[in-house]
Design goal:
With 352 residues, the protein is α/β, with parallel strands linked by helices. The protein contains seven helices and 17 strands. It has a six-stranded antiparallel beta barrel with strand order 12-15-14-13-16-17. A hairpin with a 5-residue loop joins strand 8 and strand 9. Helix 1 packs across helix 5. The N terminus is likely disordered.
Length: 352
C-alpha cells in the first residue's frame, strides 16, 4: 500500500516507456513533488526490468500497484463478454474509466495524493467558467482524448497531462536529451496490453477453453452465402479473411449473435445515417435538449458533424451530417466541440 504523502503531491503513472518518463521529468522541472506509480495489470506484462533504474535516475520513489484481479474482472471479462455478444469492445476506454483513472485514483486519494499525472497526449484547459475541461492533444496524430472521454468530470481538477502541448517528435527529442533509461519500443506499442502478441482470437479461445461455433454468412436479405468460423473472428467493417468469392468486395455489416450469423454486404451497406448510444458520460453540464457536435466513432476516425438528441436514461440518438461507414456496436463514441471533449458513450446500434 502507498504511504501517506505530503499535501499536493503528484502520483506519476510510470509505465517504463518514453512518454511517461518524459512527462515525469517535465513535472520535476516544474518543482512538483512526485511519486512514481507503476500499475501491474496483467500477468502477460511483467514489471519492466529497467523501471527501478528509471525511477532512480529521475530521483523519485517507486510504488508498484497490483491490480490484476480488478483488471481481469472489469476489463478482460468484459472483453470476452462483448465478443461473445457479437459486439466490438474497446478495453482501453473501459480500463481508463474504471481502472487507471478509477480504482487507481480511489487508492491514491485515500493515500493523500492530490493529483494523478500520466503520459497521455491530451490537454486540460479552463472552460468559460474557469473549471478544467478536456481537449485534444496538440499532436493530432497521437491525440488520446478519445480514450479519456468516459472519465468522470469531477476527476479533471486532479489530473495532469504534461505532454498535451507537445508533439511526439518533441517528446522523443527530450527523451534523448534527458538520457533516461527507458526503452522506446515499449512506448510505441499499439497492441492490447493483456494480449501483447495481438492474437485476440487465440486469447479468447484459450481463456474460454473452446472456440465459438461456426455458423452462417448471410446477405442483408437473409440469404445464405457461406459459413463462418465463429463470431469472435469478425468485426463490423471487416473485409479480409471472409473467404467468400463475390463480384465486388464484401464486408461484415452486422453480427447477429442470437442467430450465430454474420451479415455480409457491399461497402454501400456499411454506411449508416446515425447511431444510438447508451451510458453517456458528460464532461459538460448534461444537455437538456438537442445539440450539435462532432462525433468520433472509433480511434483515428476524423469525426463527423452530428445532431445529438438525449433520449433519457443516459441514452442519445445521433444523426450524422453525412453517412458514416462501419458503425460498430460496442465501440465508444466521443463528442467534440472543436478540440474540446464534451463526453462519450457506448454505441448500442447503428441506424439503418
Amino acid at each position: 500500500m502507498i504511504e501517506m504523502s505530503p499535501p499536493h503531491q503528484v502520483a506519476m503513472a510510470l509505465s517504463g516507456g518514453v512518454d511517461s518518463a518524459v512527462a515525469a521529468a517535465l513535472l520535476l522541472r516544474q518543482g512538483r513533488p512526485l511519486t512514481a506509480v507503476h500499475l501491474r495489470l496483467s500477468p502477460a506484462v511483467p514489471v519492466p526490468g529497467h523501471l527501478e533504474a528509471l525511477s532512480r535516475r529521475l530521483g523519485i520513489a517507486l510504488e508498484v500497484m497490483d491490480l490484476q484481479r480488478e483488471f481481469t474482472r472489469e476489463v478482460v471479462d468484459y472483453f470476452m463478454s462483448e465478443y461473445a455478444s457479437g459486439r466490438t469492445p474497446n478495453p482501453c476506454v473501459r480500463c481508463n474509466a474504471l481502472i487507471k483513472f478509477g480504482r487507481v485514483w480511489e487508492l491514491l486519494r485515500e493515500a493523500g495524493f492530490s493529483h494523478l499525472a500520466t503520459g497521455h497526449y491530451a490537454r486540460l484547459q479552463p472552460a468559460a467558467d474557469g473549471s478544467p475541461a478536456l481537449f485534444r492533444g496538440v499532436d493530432r496524430r497521437k491525440d488520446q482524448s478519445y480514450f479519456l472521454s468516459r472519465l468522470p468530470r469531477t476527476l479533471l481538477p486532479h489530473l495532469l497531462f504534461p505532454l498535451g502541448e507537445l508533439t511526439k517528435e518533441e517528446v522523443r527529442r527530450l527523451y534523448g536529451e534527458l538520457g533516461l533509461p527507458a526503452r522506446e519500443n515499449e512506448a510505441e506499442s499499439m497492441e492490447l496490453c493483456f494480449i501483447p502478441d495481438g492474437g485476440y482470437q487465440e486469447f479468447l479461445q484459450a481463456r474460454r477453453g473452446f472456440a465459438g461455433p461456426p455458423g452462417e454468412f448471410v446477405d442483408s436479405s437473409g440469404n445464405l452465402v457461406g459459413r463462418h468460423r465463429g463470431l469472435e473472428n469478425y468485426t463490423v467493417g471487416q473485409r479480409r479473411g471472409l473467404g467468400i468469392p463475390a463480384r465486388e468486395p464484401l464486408y461484415v455489416t452486422e453480427i447477429q449473435p442470437e442467430l450465430n450469423r454474420v451479415v455480409l454486404g457491399p461497402r454501400a451497406e456499411l454506411l449508416s445515417p446515425g447511431l444510438t448510444a447508451f451510458g453517456m458520460n458528460w464532461l459538460i453540464d448534461p444537455p437538456a435538449g438537442e445539440l450539435e457536435a462532432a462525433a468520433v466513432i472509433r480511434y483515428r476516425h476524423p469525426g463527423v458533424q452530428a445532431r445529438i438528441m438525449p433520449q433519457g436514461g443516459g441514452s442519445v440518438r445521433v444523426l450524422f451530417a453525412a453517412p458514416q461507414s462501419a458503425v460498430a456496436p460496442g465501440q465508444a463514441v466521443a463528442f467534440y466541440d472543436g478540440d474540446r471533449v464534451l463526453g462519450g458513450g457506448w454505441i448500442e446500434a447503428r441506424i439503418k
